[in-house]
Amino acid sequence: MKEKIKSDYTSWLIIIGIVMLFLEFTFFNSGLIFSLLVQVGMIYIGSKRMSKKLGKLLFWGGIVFLVISVLSMLTFRFLLLAILIHFLIQYSQTKKNPIQIKPVIDLSKNPVKDENLVKKKPLITNVFFGKQKTPQAVYEWNDINIQAGLGDTVIDLSYTVLPKGETIIFIRNIVGNIEVLVPYDMEVYVNHTSFAGTARILDLQDEKMFNQSLQLHTADYENAHQKVKIVSSMFAGNIEVKRV
């Protein structure tokens, strides 16, 4: 019953949000859709010309104006308020009727043993702003799983010895560029998602991306004993995977 109410609540919230968005674009702020298209266009064109000063100006200007436009939308404020009210209601109900879980454990069949956990220091940590990269000297490899805000990420695999099996690189980014340098004898799999940007992956050059996903791998990836899997997602920016 609670799951049905929650599902109905979510459905009504989505319907009301769509209706409000339509009314805002049609009656209250008809010029907003044009502004959003211009800002997205600025981001897209700027991402293609990041090497030039004008490209950087268009890119970051589009980001700033797009954020301001979204924050000023009545629909966004309504959804934010609805989500806040929803969490307050859920928190209040949890306090009134806390969920009690009482596990039944048969110690005679499964005797409790102390586990020795080894904590490893990550190569790259989560950052909101700034460029980060792997060391420019020999280093010990650990799989990478990070999320970043605004900035570039560079991962050079030529300075480390990768273990047998599948090496994982998982990066979530808002705005910025990702560069991964892979040894020539290494098989590669890439799963990349981007709202706006380009992809340069091995022999694939300047693949234009606009709200789409890209999946590809080298021919012998499935049977390789040593391989690299790269999974990345970003709002805007470029990804480059090349041999070193």
Describe the model:
By secondary structure, this protein is of the alpha/beta class. It has four helices and ten strands; from the N terminus they run H-H-H-H-E-E-E-E-E-E-E-E-E-E. Strand 7 and strand 8 form a beta hairpin. The protein is flat and about 60 Å long. The termini are far apart. The mean pLDDT is 81. InterPro entries: Cell_wall_LiaF, LiaF-like_C, LiaF_C. Residues 128-241 form the Cell wall-active antibiotics response LiaF-like C-terminal domain. Keywords: Membrane, Transmembrane, Transmembrane helix. The chain crosses the membrane at residues 12-45, 57-89.
List keywords for this structure.
single chain, 244 residues, alpha/beta, 10-stranded mixed sheet, flat
Short description:
The protein has helices at 2-28, 32-48, 53-72, 74-96; strands spanning 127-129, 132-133, 144-150, 153-156, 165-175, 178-182, 187-201, 204-217, 226-236, 239-243. The chain is an alpha/beta fold and 244 residues long.
